[in-house]
Amino acid sequence: MFYLTEQFFSIQGEGKYAGTPSYFLRTGGCNLSCPGFGAKYQREGVDMLGCDTYFAVDSCFSSQWEKVEDAEELIDHLSEQFDAIGYLPHMVITGGEPLLYYKDAVFYRVISWLVEQGILITFETNGTVEIDFDAYPAYQETVFSLSIKLSNSGELLHKRIKPQAIEQMVRYGKESFFKFTINKQLVETTALKEITTITQPFDHPTIYCMPVGESRETIWYNDQAVFAFCMRHNFNYSDRLHIRVFDTTQGV
Ligand code: SF4
């Protein structure tokens, strides 16, 4: 059993496959909360800070999440969606942290079916879950967008950086790239040092940097600094197309 918070057909807005028509499955639950990203919401009347997908992170929203207990039911639904779309789109499995469910039988059956269809699958992950690629070989056929959290996430270092988990995904995944979410302040202080420390064990890592921003306003505040930072250090700039176009994250 796993939780889905939403599913929808849209265009990937971030990272290497930005601009690609994609079908999104967003799972519920995360092992981090990232208060440093500053998205405001309320839990039982108390002001909280989280990331732009706090509704898929904080279990206080779980009554709104869909419990997926029957893989075949979801597979039938996806087949109908793909028929309506007219082709097999790129799949983005995101969250929350989708890989918290990587061993779940229902989740793994759905991923295996997608792999069998020859569909390109990208996991958007915080890179903290160590996958057993031998026991769950379908993950060897998937792409990992490694959105490793830096100090601006507000999370403790030992919670957000799991070198072994990152190493396994880079080594055994079909493809992987790093996608760091940074802001103006981090660019001016420790961004380069933090990114270099995480990526230096790897040969020619593909690195994207993306401005912090759960709204157009916060993206506008950070984008030029991140843009210049990428030019200075030969990193790829990633925008957040969905927020730039729709000014929200949910359902687009
Ligand atoms: S790891 Fe990602 S989904 Fe989880 S709280 Fe942090 S930014 Fe949000």
Task: Name the strands of the widest sheet in spatial order.
Answer: 5-1-2-6-7-8-9-10-11
Order of helices and strands: EEEEEHEHEEHHEHHEHEH
Q: How much helix is in the residues?
A: 25-40%
* Unreliable residue stretches: none
- Taken together, the total number of domains comes to 1
| Major sheet details | 9 strands, mixed
**Rg:** 17 Å
The count of helical stretches stands at 8
Cofactors and ligands present? iron/sulfur cluster
Distance, first to last CA: 25 Å
**Class by SSE composition:** alpha/beta
What name does the CATH topology carry? TIM Barrel
What CATH architecture label applies?
A: Alpha-Beta Barrel
Strand content: 15-25%
User: What's the count of strands?
Assistant: 11
Full CATH superfamily name:
Aldolase class I
pLDDT averaged residue by residue: 95
Task: Using the coordinates above, name the CATH class.
Answer: Alpha Beta
| Overall outline | globular
Overview of the molecule:
The chain is α/β, with parallel strands linked by helices. The chain has a single domain, classed as Aldolase class I (TIM Barrel). It contains 8 helices and 11 strands. The strands form 2 sheets. It has a 9-stranded mixed sheet. Strands 3-4 form a two-stranded antiparallel ribbon. Strand 6, helix 2 and strand 7 form a beta-alpha-beta unit. The protein is globular and about 50 Å long. The protein starts with a strand and ends in a 6-residue tail after the last helix. The model has no long low-confidence stretch (mean pLDDT 95). Bound molecules: iron/sulfur cluster (SF4). The site of iron/sulfur cluster (SF4) has 13 residues, from loops.
